[in-house]
Amino acid sequence: MAHSVGHYGLRIFHGHQPPQTAYYEDHLSYMCGKKGIMGGTLGDIVFRNITVSDCRVAGIEFEDISLGSNRIDDMHTENAFVVGQSNGNPGTAGFGIVAPHSDLYFVTDARFFNFPTGAALSDCSHCDTPAGDSGCRTTRFSNLQFDDATVLKRVVWSSPFKGIFHDLDGTLTE
């Protein structure tokens, strides 16, 4: 659990390449100054049963996935509960999940609530930096739930505005 941390609730630096699947489970980050979970260049990692709330910039954000193209969906987030701004909190609601500037990321069984500003999803983490990427990376989604009364925007595209969100079951767009 991470609460009222100045920057990141959970920060995983570049180069975390476990020899077998690493699981980060049952994590809660709330009221973080920047992001609830931030990852650099990551390998075979699963984030399971994650709750993020009231994080100023993003709830979950990963820069890059460094797996081979045959490792589709290996690096993923499952069973995420994402709140942009909780009731009574005057803070800002950035993004729920920001996809990496690489292919192969998968999000399944995620629920999004209370994004009066920002959006539940965005793409291309760190593409707006001088060493950024040209975009057009594919992120896959399934079994998403949005509280339509409180999530005003499901997706906001980040610079360079070339992301691909593959909606596997129609729950992103229904």
Helix-strand blueprint:
Layout (H helix, E strand, L loop, with lengths): L1 E2 L4 E5 L9 E9 L4 E8 L2 E9 L4 E8 L10 E8 L11 E4 L6 E9 L5 E4 L15 E9 L8 E2 L7 E4 L7
Parallel strand pairs: 1-3, 2-4, 3-5, 4-6, 5-7, 6-8, 7-9, 8-10, 9-11, 10-12, 11-13
SSE class:
mainly beta
Count of domains: 1
Number of strands: 13
**Largest sheet geometry:** 7 strands, parallel
Poorly predicted regions: none
- Give the termini separation: 33 Å
Number of helices: 0
Helix fraction, binned, reads: under 10%
What is the average per-residue confidence, as pLDDT, rounded to a whole number?
89
Task: Name the helix and strand elements from N-terminus to C-terminus, one letter apiece.
Answer: EEEEEEEEEEEEE
Strand content: over 45%
How are strands sequenced across the largest beta sheet? 1-3-5-7-9-11-13
Instruction: Give the overall form.
Output: globular
Radius of gyration: 15 Å
Q: Can you describe what's shown?
A:
The structure is a single chain. The chain is mainly β and 174 residues long. It is built from no helices and 13 strands. It has strands at residues 2-3, 8-12, 22-30, 35-42, 45-53, 58-65, 76-83, 95-98, 105-113, 119-122, 138-146, 155-156, 164-167. The strands form two sheets. The chain has a seven-stranded parallel sheet, with no helix packed on it. The protein has a six-stranded parallel sheet with strand order 2-4-6-8-10-12, with no helix packed on it. The radius of gyration is 15 Å and the shape is globular. The mean pLDDT is 89.
